[in-house]
Automatic annotation (TrEMBL):
The lineage of its organism: Eukaryota, Viridiplantae, Streptophyta, Embryophyta, Tracheophyta. Non-lysosomal glucosylceramidase that catalyzes the hydrolysis of glucosylceramide (GlcCer) to free glucose and ceramide. It catalyses: a beta-D-glucosyl-(1<->1')-N-acylsphing-4-enine + H2O = an N-acylsphing-4-enine + D-glucose. It comes from Urochloa decumbens. Its EC number is 3.2.1.45. This is Non-lysosomal glucosylceramidase. Keywords: Glycosidase, Hydrolase, Lipid metabolism, Membrane.
């Protein structure tokens, strides 16, 4: 844990008046209606920042021209098949070609978002800046589920729709709102949508749509408070000056709970306090469009129906018929009735005058009566909507609040979308169906359980968060950012399936071979050509934990599932909170190591052709359009030649093994570890024990060329040798461990001789201008070594000297340490502008660097480094990247790739502060201590270099003789 000197880092994250008066907080301090002390806060009247996308330099654009042309050709080819390209940004969502709308590059009003989508051909290649434009983006905050996701902005708008895998619609559906109606004796009446009214054309006399509603909320007396997975919106006298209102939003994101965390539900708890002298009738209204974002509500065939459930729960089901043969979705909006709260519904209203009940008419009824006709519950299912029409539903909950009295009203949203269908035909059941079945009407049971169980969910969330929030030694900004960065585990296009569910082919017929393959995909049935497995039973790797299969995207602009070089950074969050999911993902990649797909693929960086997946090479990702089966959606470079993926696999395997103590996991993945290590042998070109890079960007920095021995890949290789040895010893393979450590000693001497310059390790051993650059990520291998409880790779003095150098140059020489760590810095103190990535600040790398500093007792440097990400991304003085933390930004504040996986690496800091119990209790003298290597052997290694061919392997011919 951090030392006491962290007290000097404790700073408040908001203005001294805390944006909400203390008297209001005290009034709301019952039934958890008052927001917590530690939360990210904004006034609803705050304005979104204009976000600036990155620009490549003229030199970079010229260098990338051929790549851009090949990428453009690839995008057009994918679009012709109706598929989403995996490496584009600026995409928009479209469900049918007839509903296409162009991206508007002009600034938009704050509520409007430019959407990203699936297969539109007005796309922007990721590396071609002359196709980019700036977007005005309104930030979003709390995310709702792992069965697809919907975001809700801090100003109340529902947006960022990801119900269908790979489809993302950023634009809000503005009919989806909460509204309030208050009447006090006499003529005191208040009515308003509970969102700031800044829509163009509001209150047009001829409009029967939502602009006819009362958008009176200014937002200057209302504040939003976020601490994922909960959020509070406090309306301090808006619109009724004598009414205090708190809306608490709860999503069941509960660490180590693999059932309720999979549920597609969210609960909205309204706490009402009447400070006036008159009794007030308060009606809260939830409206919802039959839509999954974008223009999907226009596609027709949608049906609404009321329902009355158990325990006072009632509402409306909205059955959505999706386009393009995607699985249907059923929404449930509901409220809970009790002796104090009366619930009524309006099953159908439209947004135009052609509807029998219009949005204007619905609003007028609420203003006059505060409720709907009870007979509406007997209305039955509506007629299917016509093409182009928008049908919506409403649920009203009314109550009387006595003078100085308090009351609670609870709404919930759930949806049933039981099937996940990927573009190339594979179809699965979502995880929640294991508990609720596949019926569309399971939405009723979901919403009922949410309204009955949300208090238990909150107790579990409090139990998880309180120890960290109450730790006086931790900076406040860190506590806030730590939890809120977890938004990505829901917003990252997450798909969580039941691994026991049926797998259906494109013709919707049961395919038993694929069913077997999903549980143990080591068979020949899926790939065109699968190499035989050597001495390994494919049934040995199984979903033993029974937590299903889990996918999350690299980023909203990079459509690849579980990108492994990035998961290397992000996986600390899963290991800490959902370790069984983390082990499941690792088993998926272990299977993939032992597989080969001979499909021919063109690599866009140089135009060469190769095979999609090479046996022994760790997959870059689990695919895009047919995950788990068609791997490696990434095709810029041939990742079978990358030097970081295999070491990262071995390091993650050992870290997870040491953190969980799961012996069966270690035995399951051991063959893949051996194969991955053996595969790396071919990259030791001169037989000195150290792998070399091949003069192209052959690692996660895929635009930053590296030559010869490199600090990043070389350090990862050293750490992987040590981790493989430790795993071997734990599993009883002492001879293998000895060979790993012999190789380690040999490679280490080469690494230090080639790269150590007295104060840090050079970027690489080449002769380019950037070869002596200070790379922020140069100790990535040491980070994992220390995180796994292994002995350090280098002398502690060298490690701390290197970290201090990075801190002094890459951190403090960039805006005084207020932006994070720039990837590359020349020793003269100037940013390395060799390429786009060398001059960027990577948010996740900055967090991992801070974690490394914590592991080596450099708390001040660690928190100063990480605070730069908070200042730039989350604070009011920053650029406004909250809840959409990008992969990178430049010193000038231009971002690249919003909503990205790697920033989850902040949880590596928490793992450094509170290591897993199994690592803390491990023997201080590690079982694979290097002291067992004799001086004579070391001398031999230094004096004799023997080139071992890839055919024979660096660990001898017995590498596949496992005794697991």
């Amino acid at each position: 844990m951090p030392s006491g000197n962290l007290l000097s880092r404790r700073k408040r994250s908001w203005r001294a008046n805390e944006l909400v008066s203390r008297s209001t907080l005290q009034l709301l301090d019952f039934d958890d209606g008052s927001p917590p002390e530690h939360a990210w806060r904004r006034k609803l009247s705050s304005h979104a920042n204009r976000l600036k996308e990155f620009n490549v330099t003229f030199r970079e654009a010229i260098r990338m021209m051929k790549l851009g042309l090949r990428l453009w050709s690839y995008i057009r080819e994918e679009a012709s098949h109706g598929r989403l390209d995996n490496l584009t940004i600026g995409r928009k969502h479209q469900l049918t070609p007839s509903l296409e709308r162009a991206i508007d590059p002009r600034p938009h009003k704050e509520y409007l978002l430019v959407g990203w989508g699936v297969c539109d051909i007005s796309l922007q290649p990721a590396f071609m800046s002359f196709w980019f434009h700036e977007h005005l983006l309104c930030k979003f905050n709390l995310f709702l589920c792992r069965s697809g996701s919907i975001s809700r902005g801090f100003r109340g708008e529902f947006k960022h729709w990801q119900i269908t895998p790979g489809y993302c619609e950023m634009s809000p559906v503005m009919a989806n709102q909460f509204s309030i109606f208050v009447s006090r004796g006499g003529n005191k009446k208040y009515a308003s949508v509970l969102a700031p009214g800044q829509l163009d054309g509001l209150k047009k006399s001829w409009d029967d749509g939502i602009s006819s509603w009362d958008w009176k909320l200014k937002g200057d007396r209302s504040t939003y408070h976020a601490l994922f997975p909960r959020a509070w919106t406090v309306y301090d006298g808006e619109p009724d000056p004598e009414l205090k209102v708190s809306c608490r939003q709860i999503s069941p994101f509960i660490p180590h709970n693999y059932q309720e965390s999979s549920l597609p539900v969210s609960v909205f708890v309204y706490t009402l306090v009447n400070t006036g002298k008159e009794k007030a009738k308060v009606s809260l209204l939830m409206t919802w469009a039959n839509s999954i974002g974008g223009l999907s509500h226009h596609t027709g065939g949608h049906v609404n129906e009321p329902f009355i459930g158990e325990n006072g729960v009632s509402g409306v089901l909205l059955h959505h018929k999706t386009a393009n043969n995607n699985p249907p979705v059923t929404f449930a909006i509901a409220a809970c009735e009790n002796q104090n709260v009366n619930v009524t519904v309006l099953p159908v209203f439209g947004l135009s005058g052609e509807s029998s009940v219009t949005a204007r008419g619905m609003w007028g009824t609420m203003v006059q009566d505060g409720s709907f006709d009870q007979d509406n519950f007997n209305a039955g299912a509506s007629m299917p909507s016509s093409l182009g029409d928008t049908v919506c539903a409403a649920v009203s909950a009314s109550t009387w609040v006595e003078p100085h009295g308090r009351c609670t009203v609870v709404f919930a949203l759930a949806w049933s979308s039981p099937k996940v269908k990927f573009k190339k035909g594979s179809e699965y059941c979502r995880r929640y169906t294991k508990f609720y079945g596949t019926s569309p009407r399971s939405a009723v049971n979901l919403v009922q359980d949410a309204l009955m169980k949300y208090k238990h969910w909150e107790e579990a969330i409090d139990k998880w968060q309180t120890p960290i929030l109450s730790d006086e030694r931790l900076p406040e900004w860190y506590k806030i950012t730590l939890f809120n960065e977890l938004y990505f585990l829901v917003a990252g296009g997450t798909v969580w399936i039941d691994s026991e569910s049926l797998v259906v082919d494109a013709d919707n017929k049961l395919n038993s071979s694929l069913l077997e393959d999903i549980d143990s995909p080591l068979r020949d049935s899926t790939f065109n050509s699968t190499a035989p497995l050597i001495g390994f039973d494919p049934h040995e790797i199984d979903d033993k934990e029974n937590v299903g299969k889990f996918l999350y995207m690299e980023g909203i602009e990079y459509f690849m599932w579980c990108t492994y070089d990035v998961h290397f950074y992000a996986s600390f969050a899963l290991l800490e909170l959902f370790p069984k999911i983390e082990l499941s993902i690792q088993r998926d990649f272990a299977r993939a190591v032992l597989r080969e797909d001979n499909t021919r693929v063109r690599f866009l960086a140089d135009g060469t052709w190769g095979i999609r997946k090479v046996i022994g090479a760790v997959a870059h990702d689990l695919g895009a359009h047919d995950p788990w089966h068609e791997l490696n959606a990434y095709n810029i470079h041939d990742t079978s030649r990358w030097k970081d993926l295999n070491p990262k696999f071995v390091l993650q395997i050992y870290r997870d093994f040491s953190a969980t103590g799961d012996m069966s996991f270690g035995k399951d993945v051991w063959p893949a570890v051996c194969t991955a290590m053996e595969y790396m042998e071919q990259f030791d070109h001169d037989g000195d024990g150290m792998v070399e890079n091949d003069g192209f960007p052959d690692q996660t920095y895929d635009a930053w060329t590296v030559q010869g021995v490199s600090a990043y890949c070389g350090c990862l290789w050293l750490a992987a040798l040590q981790a493989a040895a430790a795993l071997a010893r734990s599993l009883g393979h002492d001879d293998y461990a000895e060979r790993c450590m012999l190789r380690f000693a040999k490679a280490k001497s080469v690494f230090e001789a080639r790269l150590w310059n007295g104060s840090y390790f050079n970027y690489d051993s080449g002769i380019s201008y950037s070869s002596r650059s200070i790379q922020a990520d140069q100790l990535a291998g040491q980070w994992y070594t220390a995180s796994s409880g292994l002995p350090p790779l280098f002398d502690e003095d060298r490690i701390k000297c290197t970290l201090q150098k990075i801190f002094d140059y890459n951190v403090m020489r960039v805006k005084g340490g207020r932006m994070g760590a720039v990837n590359g810095m020349h020793p003269n103190g100037k940013v390395d502008e060799t390429c786009m990535q060398s001059r960027e600040i990577w948010t996740g790398v900055t967090y991992s660097l801070a974690a490394t500093m914590l592991l080596h007792g450099m708390e001040h440097q660690a928190f100063t480094t990480a605070e730069g990400i908070y200042i730039t991304g989350w604070s009011e003085e920053g650029y406004g990247y909250w809840f959409q933390t990008p992969e990178a930004w430049t010193v000038g504040g231009h971002y690249r790739s919003l909503i990205y996986m790697r920033p989850l690496a902040i949880w590596a800091m928490q793992c450094a502060l509170s290591p897993p119990k199994s690592i803390l209790e491990a023997p201080r003298v590690n079982t694979m201590d290097r002291a067992h290597i004799s001086p004579g052997t070391l001398q031999f290694l230094q004096d004799s270099v023997r080139k071992i061919t890839p055919k024979n392997g660096c660990f001898g011919n017995n590498v596949f003789n496992w005794d697991c």
